[in-house]
Every structure is written in structure tokens, then in C-alpha cells.
């Protein structure tokens, strides 16, 4: 078998889990074993597997017009309809949409649009972007520079300085608090540090700050109460735009339409991918407000053509997949369902796992959650290396549950939004067995 390069995998082909098909919240391997897809693929298959309506919508579009590009005055109905549909949903006034293929490229597009916009209005120095430690925003060269996870940043010589990217503290109280700091003291301290950074860099050199409302890939971090309110006050005071990366949180994941709604963020810019099409076809969107677009196309601006776009920007089949996904979300009240089942998941996780000797913190909102596995529950001290997280992931897999170890020793759950309460119970039964095996392993290893 020809080898395939994929990150963080040093398993041989026979050691890898080879999936064959899916149905609802379940996937089956090539030996016929069934697993609950507890991470919705990679935080994305919101409507689960084998959704025939999505398959038909995509096939219908492929049969009608499989491709047209969106350059030089061309467009097509699915793209226009999708932009209209999204415009009714997003909390941005008079929004404009740039379609791409992945979360990474949507974030790259925003970096370019910000540069282009500030050049167009004669403020070329306003180009820095603030990102947070433990933020994950993708892996292309620019989005990779916004990302702060060591494995995605180290070894690649990401052009962090060239791109004028500034880093600030992650709002993770559990791992970031100092001494007996309360949550409020912690928030005030990290935001004061950010304020000093903004002042020393010069507010007129900073374009925007990117945030995942709840960070996903770096451990499902839910910032403390009050954090976003204070953060936005600070950014607005200094004329810095708020950019919500909704690639994981968008479309029902946190129990609302967007993570921004759940966390009280009023974004100027947004990026989407993943659940926009329930991952049935790759598509992303970078959203800007009308006032920004108007300035970009103003004929008197001296910048020239906005020369950016991908061959597959607004791919017709991707737009058809997204349109059908949004239709199902609305028709089947998927966000409301996610809110109800999400509350149940969060309550059950706390009830069943808070006292587990391996679990330092249970966190999450809606249908996204993580357990932080620690070496010492009393002090919260973590493990050296990803020893518990990696083991737990494989142990859960042996017990019929696919989840993901993130940021070392956190195990993340993010099931399809269609999961039912009784399926949540099954998922947590498998998690429980996986954790018991992990606990035995950790004790045996000393
Ligand atoms: N932004 C966030 C918050 C993500 O979680 C991800 C991927 O997980 C990305 C951006 C990058 O998306 P993609 O993998 O589609 O490039």
C-alpha cells in the first residue's frame, strides 16, 4: 500500500483505524466494528453520516452545473442564494461573503482583506493582528502563523514577524491562574497585560484580534464570565476589529447559531467552514461588514484590484451542500436540539466524571466539551507528555467511541448535533470504560 503523509501519525497502515462507512452518529471500520463518532469527524459532521438529502443536493448540483468560477463577473445561483441565506443569520450588518474551501484559507483571506482595506483607506500601518496562546486557526502559511499550538508552529518557520502577528494570553483559568487568583482577577490581569501590549505596539498599528469563542483544537477552553465583555471594551477603545473564528463554534455547536452569540461577542468579522456544509463538501466563508466592502471597491482608492480568489471559491456543489445543510438546521430545529442535548451532555459529564481521579477539569458548552486529564487532581499538575490523552483516545476507541486527545492530555468530545440523549448516555458509558483503562494504565506506569 502506498504511504500517505498525515500529521502526528507514526502508526503503520495496519495499526490505523480504517473507516468504511457511516450512519447517523456512527461510523464502521472495514471489519464491521461500530463506533460513535464522538468528534463529528474533525468537529464537522454536524448532521451525521449518510444524510441522503445532502447527498441528493450535491449530486443534483453536480449533474446540473458541476463547476463555474466566480471571477470576472461570473456567479451562479447556489452561491447567491447561500450568501442571502447567511446574510439573514450572521450578526454583522450588511455582510459580504468570500467563499473558499477550508477554515485555514478563510482565515488567510481575512488577513488579505484587512490589509487591502486598510491600504485602501490610507492606513497601511494598521496591519498587526492579535492572536491568543493556544489559539488554533489553521495550517496554511498565514493561518498557521495565527495558530499558537507548538506542533503547528514549530519547525515551519512560520512568518510570524513578517505577518505582524502579536500573541496574548489564553483565557484558560485552570492552567493560567496564578496562586489564589479568582477568575475575575485572572481576567483583569491578562487583559491588563494585553492593554499594555496594545499601548506599547501602538493601537494605530493593530487591525484586528482573532478569537475562537470557545477554542476547540487546543483543549475546548471556555473563557471565564466577563472576559469577552471586557476584552471587547478594550479593543473598541483602541479601534481594533473583533474577528470571530467560528470554524468550530459556528452553526449550533455551542447551542446557538454562533459561538459569538453564546459568548456575547459582537464580531466585526467572522470565518466559517466545517459545519457550514456538515462537511459533506469542503466550503468556507470569510465575512466582512458592508462598510469595509464599500471602502474596498471605492473607485478612488489607489490600491487597484483585489486580486484574490481560489479556483474552487464558491464551488457550486459546495454551495448546494451548504444551502441544504442550513435548510435542515432550520427545518429540524437542530440548534434548539443541540442546546437541549448539550445541556444534558454538560450536566452528565460533570456528574459522572468530575470526581474521577484522573480528571482535573470538565469544561464545555452545548455539544462541545473536554476533560483535562491530570497527574495530580489536588494540585492540577499535568502529565509530562501526552501520555494519558493518547492512551485514553485509543482506550475509548477499543470501547466503541472515537474522540480526540487535544493539547496533550485533554480528551475532547464534539458529537454530531443530531445525537440524542440516550446516545449521549452510550457515549459516556464508552468514555467511562476508556477512562478506567487509562487510570489502570497510569497507575501501572507509576
Ligand atoms: N479555525 C479553527 C477554529 C479550527 O478549529 C480549524 C480547524 O480545525 C481551522 C480554523 C482550520 O480549518 P481547516 O482545517 O478547514 O483548514
From TrEMBL:
| PROSITE patterns found in the cross-reference section | AA_TRANSFER_CLASS_3
Q: Which InterPro entries does this entry report, sorted A to Z? A: Aminotrans_3, Aminotrans_3_PPA_site, PyrdxlP-dep_Trfase, PyrdxlP-dep_Trfase_major, PyrdxlP-dep_Trfase_small
Cofactor(s) needed by this chain? pyridoxal 5'-phosphate
> Is Ribonucleoprotein among this UniProt entry's keywords?
no
Which keywords belong to this entry? Aminotransferase, Pyridoxal phosphate, Transferase
**UniProt keyword RNA-binding present:** no
* Pfam families the record matches: Aminotran_3 (PF00202)
Question: Which GO-annotated molecular functions does the record name?
Answer: transaminase activity
PANTHER family documented for this protein? AMINOTRANSFERASE (PTHR43094), AMINOTRANSFERASE CLASS-III (PTHR43094:SF1)
Question: Which family, according to UniProt?
Answer: Belongs to the class-III pyridoxal-phosphate-dependent aminotransferase family.
Would you tell me the protein name for this molecule? Aminotransferase
